[in-house]
Amino acid sequence: MMGTFDKKMKKWASKVFGDSSSLSQDFLDYERKAENKKSSTMLRFEQNKAELLMYFGDEFPNLVAGFISTSREDLIALEGAMDLKDIEQIRMFSHRIKMACRRLMVEDIASLAERLEMDCHDVHWAHLQVDVCRIQTKFVGFLDALEEDFKSPSLLFE
């Protein structure tokens, strides 16, 4: 059975490389391996959590909850902007994702969003699609892990 991750990746890979391309499958395999390393993003977040707690205090759980819901909305909007080939919306949502991630010290995803934002200046749709695919892959995995931690609020304060 094909999971949500596989369906999204297959959609993006077929857009970029074509439905029958072996390159499409190679890309899918590469991104799946990268997605399995999502714990590295979560580990870095865990390392920064003490500093974030000191800075945001009791508002930290609310900040994380808002980050999760807003980020999911931004990812959906980013995908819609890609489908419409609306470069200004792509740039805006990549900037929003970048800044939200920087606020919570999630630099690897912020860097991917910054790359997408910069690639909007020199529009090459295949590159933009790959950038968005990488953001979605890494970010969705991180948001899922963060949301799982958020279900047990005590984990946020460990």
Tell me the Rg in angstroms. 16 Å
Look at the structure and give the CATH class: Mainly Alpha
Morphology: elongated
Low-confidence parts: none
Can you write the helix and strand succession as a string?
HHHHHHHH
Number of domains: 1
Characterise this structure:
This protein has eight helices and no strands. The mean pLDDT is 81. It is mostly helical. The N and C termini lie far apart (36 Å). 85% of the residues lie in helices and 0% in strands. It has a single domain (39-156), classed as Up-down Bundle (Four Helix Bundle (Hemerythrin (Met), subunit A)), CATH 1.20.120.
Gist of the model:
85% of the residues lie in helices and 0% in strands. It is an all-alpha fold and 158 residues long.
Core attributes:
Four Helix Bundle (Hemerythrin (Met), subunit A), single chain, 158 residues, mainly alpha
